[in-house]
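Lab meeting, action items carried over

1. Structure of the two-component assembly. Owner: GW. Status: complete.
Input record:
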Amino acid sequence: MDPRATSSPRVNSTTQSLAIIINRANPVDNLSLVELRRLFLGERNHWPNGHRVAVAMLDYGQPERQTVLRLIFRMDEKTYQDHLLRGMFRGDVFVAPKTLASPTIVRKFIFNAPGAIGYVRASDVDGTVKVVRIDGLLPQDKDYPLQIDE
Amino acid sequence: MRETQSPVGRFVAAWSALSRRFFPAYKFPRSFSAVLLILLLLGEAGVAAYVMRDLARSYATVESMYNGSVQVLLRFGDVQYEAQETRRSTLYALSTNDANLQVDYADQSRSADRRVTEGIAHYLAQVRTSRQAEAGHRLAADWSAYLTVRDDVLGLILEGSPKEAVQLDLSRGVPEFDQVRHDLDEIKILYDQQASRELTTVAELSRRSTDRLTLAVACGLLFGMLAIWAIQRSRMQAAVQLAKLQMDFVASISHELRTPITAILTAAENIRDGLVLGREQLLEQGSVITEQGSRLVELVDQVLLFSATSQSALSHPLREFRVEELIAHSLRSTKSLLESAKFTIEQDLEPGLPPIFGDLSLLSQCLENLIVNAVKYGSDNRWIRISARLRQQRRDVLIHVEDRGIGIQPSELPHIFDPFYRSPKVVAARIRGTGLGLSIAKRSAEIFGGEISVSSEVGLGSTFTLRLPVAKERIREAVVSSSNRTRIDTI
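Predicted assembly:
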């Protein structure tokens, strides 16, 4: 079935929430913040279904990226870059994150790559991707931990 | 000088002029011309219908061929291109490390594959044979299998595993795509073959159309030649008939003229030679000269009247007059003839007949000719009945002149109104006549919108019917008509 034809209900969230999105074929529905951090930092290489994890990051300086650095990585940009370089040098990080220009490209990337994970504003989510719960919460839920700081 | 002015010479000259005017070589029966014309038109219409039908069939075949083969082939050219584009975009994604470009190429690949899928669905909706359907379904299945591999390859590329992507593409993507290419080629060959067959059909149809067109044109030419032959034959017959009529006329007129002239000359010679003695004999010879002279005048009048009724532009003093007046006028003119022949005249005129419109003199002459005809062929019964009645619904008056005479053979009925026609039986019986009386009567009636018809039984008698339109209708027609055949002097 063509995943583009799937009609997933659009997430009615506040525009300030950051949605974590994965490929629709990925069976994972829920992640803890800790698991999320490990995935984004490249400390976990494969999904339970065997697909390699591919992290999609928005371009430098964008609020979504800043929010991920702050809330998930708990680093600033420079620390993150250092961490990434060190990890690749030591072999802890196998695949560098993909830096993509816009939320649309992020969505397309995740749609085409079964093992991809990324983030967009909750208002940018459409039916081509799957929103994963963070600690059991969706972006529209109260107490959702990932709120964009603009 | 006296020779050229003799009555015979004048009559011959008059006839020559008449024959030139009324019996030109090209004249032939109207019904015959109409039949020829209808045949020609039908023939040409048939040719046109035949050609149109063939053209329509050729057009339908070509259209069917275009829709069935050429259009599919054109569409399949597009499908082949899009399939190549699907694969090409996938391979482009392999050639770069820029994730944004990789996403773009993946997007392009998916757009192209969507167009291919639509093309295959469209093709499947149009297939005509089971072989085409089988090839189409095989293509759809192979394309779907290739897309599955393509999705995996794209996934590996985007996940950052280009090596695995290349391996997957080589091991499964290339064979699957080769299968798709093979399916496309097979379908193209199928439609190439179908197009070739249809092209052969069109060529055959075209050749057949050309043959039919040639046949149709040949038929048209044959029709034309037949028509020309028939017209020429008709002309020849008319010319032969004209010559015969001329000879008959000259013979008849010569005989008719010779009798009174001989009588006049004999009487004159008797007087000159002193053979006439006494007043009583002189009166007798004078009477002979007068009677035969009158007969000559009558003959000349008949020919001149025939000429007058035949001219296309005539002036007739027109007026309204009653039917009773017309009949009385005619009976007065023929009174001496009727009395000398001891005929009984019976009249039956419907009271209150409406007036008719025309030239009293000419119409009276018309009726007189019918009466004289009845006297001439009235046999020993010596009875004539003249009746008149109105036909309300047709606004005309019918005047019947009925006799109990020898009647007319059915075979002669179509000819009795022909100028100079005289029945062989009548000629054999030495009954005098020029053959102009009924012709003059007919033409006189037609000048004023009327007509003459006849019914007859051999041995029982004949009834001639003169139909004349009533005055009001005639006036309206005369005013409306732009014909200069008649000039209305009095209304």
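2. GW to write a short summary for the group page. Key points so far: Chain A has one domain: 15-133. The first helix of chain A runs from residue 33 to 40.
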